[in-house]
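Appendix C: a fully annotated inverse folding record. The material below is reproduced so that readers can follow the format used throughout the book. The structure is listed first as tokens, followed by the designed sequence.
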């Protein structure tokens, strides 16, 4: 493959919303504290696969309460400043945004009646519904409110908005009472999938005093924003109480705007009397065992279950378990920077062939069954199989898949031997043992999250696989996740000459170094490390262009591991950004995902699943990435 052409500054900054979406803490860490006895390797899990509720059906009775449980309290529910997923769910009960996506990946309009482009993605027309109302005294929600919010908060220097980066270079203007027009600096045929147009409805009249005074603190502490008391008919439920460490409570909003949609459209008739719970509640229960017990005793309607309890609840007729696929992955990170490969000399992690060897040495199926208790799917390239942009498996190398792919000692060592020829240091195989220049067995270090028994189990599995299939020793080390992030994963940004490197004859500059990519491989974190299971990452299945933050060059926005692409990544991402049709985007994305499958910048292992336990009387949950898109219509039978 040809090497990339490197421009002077390829760094594309991650905004706060993207940053939080990107980092999954992480992979198997996402189920921290959840591991128990392994399931039998031949066991299969059979969770519920309920059909979506029929939105064209008759309205059910309004009755009871929907009672969900989370493990962490909310720092704020101010919709302007919140960046936490859990608090976002709490806000979402009482305040809709413009749209979501349904179980078929089709755009599902909410506050917007339409969002469309007529020029291949440069200009977008945003149309609001005509029955949207704030609480008194703010009146109707109109395009003036939407545009004012974007221009005076997200595009203003004084307001530290989480979404500011989404609106850089975008010209937003009001066309008429209910219509806004956004002109993008570059055409984006999947702009809705980027989620950039999604903004909470905030009254212009509420914002104006704070904008005039440039009063950030006042805006953060505004009682109407913290109580969502301005929400009017813009959400299915009305917030009645936020208990700081205890959760939130809601009452049914009988004036909910989507009821008019249900009355007007036969295919949305179920929504004509929505919502269908008298009250709703999100309770905070920090202890995992207590959360699980609450579901077990039938006291709550929804709990996210740990993998070691998933099969138990699947077998329990008193619980409905739905496996919700996620875009977050379980990966093995390898350190290609100068303080990686601590066995020394050289750094075999920089060799694509050696990373392929690592991928071929780990049985993904045994990992999923034995470590993740059957709750996961194979990860072979940087998209989950449910993504529109997944290229299919026919032409992918199925690393770590015994039956139809590349797995075991022979293929792993063949690739390792190929990698040995690419470095100056004298490594070789002595029988089945990988030895270094002094003749001693290669010994490496792996770090896993001390709070995660699941990661501990995974680390031991990797140790056994590498010993058997690649012949090197792996020492496994428990570490606090924050300590690893601060001292091992993140580095102090370099300065001056440190930020320039010649790579294959091209001069590469790190114009915006950051802790997540502090500079060339010579710029390292404080502590050395070889491998880690601490973090998994988001693969962005709706908007694959976002993956440029990881992979568009050595100086990409997020590159703690020091990966230098060997394919022309910048050209591929340029074609993705410039695509005028979804077909053109899919063609360029296919090239990207084939390349990442081959290069394994992170050793791709599995995609996790959220194991959602529900009261079996609840109707609405689906085993789909879009689970909850139709929450306003959920009910009990």
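Designed amino acids, in order:
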């Amino acid at each position: 493959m040809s090497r990339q052409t490197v421009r002077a500054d390829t760094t594309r900054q991650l905004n706060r919303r993207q940053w939080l979406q990107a980092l999954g803490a992480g992979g198997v860490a996402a189920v921290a504290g959840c591991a128990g006895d392994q399931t039998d390797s031949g066991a299969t899990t059979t969770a519920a696969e309920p059909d979506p509720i029929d939105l064209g059906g008759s309205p059910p009775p309004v009755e009871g309460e929907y009672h969900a449980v989370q493990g962490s309290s909310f720092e704020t529910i101010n919709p302007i400043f919140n960046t936490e997923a859990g608090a976002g769910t709490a806000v979402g009960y009482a305040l809709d945004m413009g749209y979501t996506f349904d179980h078929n990946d089709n755009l599902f309009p909410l506050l917007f009646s339409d969002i469309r482009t007529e020029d291949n993605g440069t200009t977008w027309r945003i149309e609001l519904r005509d029955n949207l109302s704030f609480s008194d005294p703010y009146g109707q929600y109109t395009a003036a409110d939407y545009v004012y919010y974007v221009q005076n908060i997200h595009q203003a220097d004084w307001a530290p908005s989480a979404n500011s980066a989404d609106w850089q270079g975008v010209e937003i203007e009001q066309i008429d009472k209910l219509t806004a027009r956004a002109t993008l600096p570059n055409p984006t045929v999947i702009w809705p999938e980027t989620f950039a147009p999604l903004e909470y409805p905030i009254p212009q009249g509420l914002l104006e005093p704070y904008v005039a005074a440039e009063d950030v603190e006042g805006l953060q502490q505004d009682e109407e924003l913290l109580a969502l008391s301005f929400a009017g008919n813009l959400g299915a439920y009305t917030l009645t109480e936020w208990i700081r460490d205890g959760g939130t409570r809601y009452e049914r909003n009988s004036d909910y705007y989507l009821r008019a949609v249900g009355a007007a459209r036969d295919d949305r008739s179920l929504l004509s009397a929505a919502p269908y719970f008298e009250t709703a509640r999100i309770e905070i229960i920090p202890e995992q065992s207590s959360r699980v017990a609450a579901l077990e005793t039938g006291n709550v309607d929804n709990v996210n279950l740990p993998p070691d309890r998933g099969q138990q609840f699947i077998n329990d007729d008193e619980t409905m378990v739905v496996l919700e696929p996620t875009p977050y992955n379980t990966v093995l990170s390898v350190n290609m920077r100068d303080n990686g490969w601590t066995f020394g000399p050289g750094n075999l992690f920089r060799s694509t062939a050696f990373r392929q060897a690592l991928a071929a040495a780990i049985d993904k199926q045994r990992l999923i069954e034995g470590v993740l208790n059957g709750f996961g799917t194979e990860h072979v390239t940087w998209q989950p199989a449910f993504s529109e942009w997944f290229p299919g498996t026919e032409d992918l190398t199925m690393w770590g898949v015994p039956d139809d792919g590349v797995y075991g000692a022979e293929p792993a060592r063949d690739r390792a031997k190929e990698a040995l020829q690419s470095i100056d240091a004298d490594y070789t195989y002595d029988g089945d043992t990988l030895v270094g220049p002094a003749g001693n067995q290669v010994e490496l270090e792996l770090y896993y999250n001390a709070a995660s028994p699941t990661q501990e189990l995974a680390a031991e599995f990797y140790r056994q696989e590498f010993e058997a299939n690649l012949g090197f020793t792996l020492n496994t080390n428990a570490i606090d996740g924050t300590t690893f992030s601060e001292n091992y994963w993140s580095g102090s940004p370099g300065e001056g000459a440190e930020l320039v490197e010649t790579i294959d004859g091209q001069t590469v500059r790190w114009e915006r170094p950051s802790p997540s990519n502090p500079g060339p491989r010579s710029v390292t974190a404080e502590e050395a490390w070889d491998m880690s299971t601490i973090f998994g990452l988001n693969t962005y299945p709706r908007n694959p262009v976002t993956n440029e933050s990881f992979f568009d060059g050595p100086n990409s926005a997020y590159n703690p591991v020091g990966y230098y692409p060997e394919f022309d990544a910048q050209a591929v991402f340029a074609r993705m950004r410039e695509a005028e049709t979804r077909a053109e985007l899919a063609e360029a994305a296919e090239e990207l995902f084939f390349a990442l499958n081959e290069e394994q910048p992170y050793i791709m292992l599995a995609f996790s699943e959220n194991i959602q336990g529900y009261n079996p009387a609840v109707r609405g949950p689906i085993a789909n990435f879009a689970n909850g898109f139709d929450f306003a219509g959920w009910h009990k039978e």
